[in-house]
Amino acid sequence: MRSARNRQIVADRLAGESYAMITKRHGLSRRRAEKIIQQHEQQVQQLSMHPVYEYVGIRAINCLRKAGVNPEDIDAICQYSPESLLCLPNFGHTSLAQLEAYLHLIGRALLCRGYYARAASIPPAAAKRFEKMPITLVAG
Q1: Does 16 fall in a domain?
Q2: Tell me, what's the pLDDT at 31?
């Protein structure tokens, strides 16, 4: 959606209003209103086709987006370590477990402990908390 008007048209239609009411309120033709609604439905369908949306919760997806990571870009997600993801606001252990399960399903993984986590992945406020976390090495 490009404009606030288009978002409002979609919201009106999802609320159950008729095309006649929408065209009268927004001053456009029925054909144009139908095209706007159809474009919105296509965007929703394209988003729901990517498998990450089936396996990972919406909270984890929103946290990744706020961190500047496209949730569909698996390579970018794999650049993060579990510790750096947990430092993101509202990204908790459940979100981490969902994301790791999805990555395991497709044969990928997050960065292991001990590797350098991308500096941009840790917000400044959480960096101090991250430095205080004890690092334990696990023989494996």
Answers
A1: yes
A2: 93
